[in-house]
C-alpha cells in the first residue's frame, strides 16, 4: 500500500495506523449481548480509534465527518475524560479511507451514539493498558496509580511516567474488550460541559475550513452540465463553437450525457459553462406529472405495500357512543438546499485516485467510485473535508464522482469541481413527498381505541452504499450503470407508529417510485409521519373535547415522554396567545428509540394577508446523557428553525419538463426577518445512554405549527406547506 | 476579454491583479488573493455567502465585476481581524456565543453585522434582522446570530 502510506504524512506518529481495509462493517451481525457500541464491534482494535503521539498527546480517529454537529469536539471530550487529559492535548482525525474506522455514513443522528461512545470505550481501554504498563514498570499495584496530564503517577506523586515513556515507541494494541471499565459518570469533568467547538474560531478567522477552500498546487477548475430533467439525454455539443467563444479550456469531457469543462482559471470555466448551457440540445425525458394534484398522483402510482404494525383489530364493530375520525395529510418534496453547493477535489495520480469530499460516507463512496471508474478499491483514497451543512444525502457524493471522472480525463492535476446553485437545486436527491390516510376511533370516554394509518412514500435511502448506480453521473455515461431502486426503506415508516397506548392498530406503508430523484433528508420519513400523527392527535383531542396536553398524557405511559411534555408545558405556562395568535404543541420520540422532544409553537396569522408568522418555538428535549449541552442546544435550535421553514414555505415545484425550483427565489427558505425566536430546555439524564438528537425536532415542529395555526385562525391545514392562501377565511371549517 | 491589470485595495493593502474585467470580485478575492472569507453560494446575489464590505457597506461580491470596484476599499472577513491578531467584536461575539453550525453562512453574517455596527452602535433586534436579511442560513443558526450581533454591539461599545 505504498501510495496510501505516502499519503499519511504524520511525522509525530509512533506507528503506522492499523490498516482497516479488511474491516468489513457487519452491523446486522452485532451481538445483542455485547455492550460495546456498534461501530466499535465493527472495528474493535484499540488503535483503530486512538493513538498516543510521541509528544504525549493523544490522537483519536472517527469515521464520521463534521457536518456542523460538533462531532470533533464530542469525541475529543470523550478521550480527554477517560484519560484525564486537557482537551487541547487531544487531536481528532475525521473520516478518511485507510486511516480512520469505517463507520459508513454520518447519518441518522448516530455520531454520538456510535462514534463518540466508541472513542469513550477505546480511551477507557487505553487507560487500563497504560495503568498496567506503569504498574509493571514501577512494580506497584495498578490500583494505586493515577492518570493525570498525559502521565501515570503513583499516589504520592513521587514517581511518574509519561504515556510516551511508557510506550517507548510502541503503540497500544489489541481489541477493546467488552468488559472495559468506563470512568464512573459521577467523576466526569469534561463530558457534560458546554465546551466550545474550536473550529468556530477558525471559521471567524476565515481559515481554510471547507473543501471549497482547498488550494492544492496546480489545481484546475471544473464545471459540469446536467440534463435539464430526469431522463433527458444529450444530442450533441458544439465543442468547436465553445472553444472559439471561450478560449483557454483545458479539456471538454463528453461521455454519453455527461459533460464536464476544465480550465486553469475558474472564471473561464464559468464562462464556458454559461455559454454552453443554453446551446446544449437534449432529448426530452418522460413528462413529469405536473398540473395534477400531487397527492392524487401519488395515490395512483403502483406501490408495494408493507405492514409496519398491527395489533388488535382495526375493523372491529363500532361500539355505542364511539366517535370516528378520518383525515388525509400530505407533505411535498423538500430540498436539502445546502447553502454551499456541492464541491469536490479529485486527483488522479500514478494510477491512484485521491478524493477530497464532504460526502457523509467516505468508505461507501470509495467503493462506489472505484466501481464507476473500474479501479480496484485500494487505488481510491477518499478523505472527508467539511462542506456546508448537508442535512442528509445531497449532491456531495455525485459531485465527488463527477470530479473523479474529470480527474481521470486530466491526470496529474487536482480538479476542483464546484456545482452551481442550479446544479444543487435541480439535481440533489430530494426528500420524498408523502401521503397519509388516517382513520381513528374514540370510545365514549374519549380514549383512543383504533388507529389505522395508510401511508405512501418513495424511498428515503438511495445513498450509493458502495454501488455506482446511484451516483448521478453513472446513469449519464455512454455505458451507463442501471439504477437499482432500493426496496422499502425503514426510513419510510420512521415514527409512523404512535408511542401512545392504543389497543387496535394497523399501519401500512405503500412504497412507490415517484417522478423525482429522492434520498435521505434529515429525519427521513419522520418529518411527514410526525406531522400527520401529531396533527391527528390534536384533531382527536378536539373531537374528544379534551385539552391537547391532557389528551396526549392520558395515552402515554413512557415516563420520559411524559417528562418532556411536562417540561414544554412548564416553559410556556405564562405565555398568552394574543389576537390572531395560537399556541400549538406536538411530541415525538425520534425513531421511537432516540431523543424525546416536545415543541410548542406560537403562530400569528395576519388577518390581512393570512401569512402565518411563526413567532416563537420552545422545545424540551431528553437526549439521555449529554456530552456537550451547548452542542445539543445548537443542533436543536437549528432543527426547530429549519423544520419551521420546511413547514410554512417549502415545496419543490415542477412542470412537465423539469423541476422549476432552481434558485432561492423559486425555492424560498426562511430569511432573518421571518425566523422565530427559539428556546431549548434540556431534560438531563446523565445516568442514561446518550441518544441521537440531531433530527429530533423536525417532525414535532411541523405539527406544533399546524396545531398553532388552527388555534390562531380556525383553519386546519393538512397539506404542507402552510401557505397564506390555505388560510383564507373561506377555508375555515364551520 | 483581454486580461487587464487592476489595483484593488483589499484589507488595507493595494494588490495588483490581472483579470478579465468582467470577472466577479469573488473569484479574484478567492483565487488570486487566496482569501477564504467570501464564499460561493449562488452567484446571483441571493444568499449573501460572498459578502464583503465595499467602502464600509456590506455588498455581495459574486456579481460585482472587478472593473467596477475602482479604488473603493474592500474588506473581507480576514480584514476584520486586527493586525495584532485580535478579533473584531463581531468575530469575538460569534465565538463567545458559539454562533455557527456548519458555518458556511458565517461570512455573510459577520460582514453584514460589521457593516451595520459601523452605522448603528446599538441596533435593536428588528434592525439586526433587517441588516442580515440578505444572508441565508440553512442550519438555522439565526437565533444565535442575532444574539451575537447584540453582544458584538456591547463589546464594541466597551472596547
Ligand atoms: S454567492 Fe453571492 S449572494 Fe450568493
Ligand atoms: S451555519 Fe450552516 S448555513 Fe448557517
TrEMBL record, chain A:
Keywords: Signal. It comes from the Bacteria. Residues 205-286 form the Aldehyde oxidase/xanthine dehydrogenase a/b hammerhead domain. One of its GO terms (molecular function) is oxidoreductase activity. Residues 1-31 form the signal peptide. PANTHER family: ALDEHYDE DEHYDROGENASE (PTHR47495), BLL3820 PROTEIN (PTHR47495:SF1). This is Xanthine dehydrogenase family protein molybdopterin-binding subunit. It comes from Hymenobacter jeollabukensis.
Automatic annotation (TrEMBL), chain B:
Keywords: 2Fe-2S, Iron, Iron-sulfur, Metal-binding. The keyword NADP does not apply. Residues 4-80 form the 2Fe-2S ferredoxin-type domain. It holds the Pfam family Fer2. It comes from the Bacteria. The keyword Protease does not apply. Gene3D superfamilies: 3.10.20.30, [2Fe-2S]-binding domain. InterPro entries: 2Fe-2S-bd, 2Fe-2S-bd_dom_sf, 2Fe-2S_ferredoxin-like_sf, 2Fe-2S_ferredoxin-type, Beta-grasp_dom_sf, Diverse_Oxidoreductases. GO terms for molecular function: 2 iron, 2 sulfur cluster binding; metal ion binding; oxidoreductase activity. This is (2Fe-2S)-binding protein.
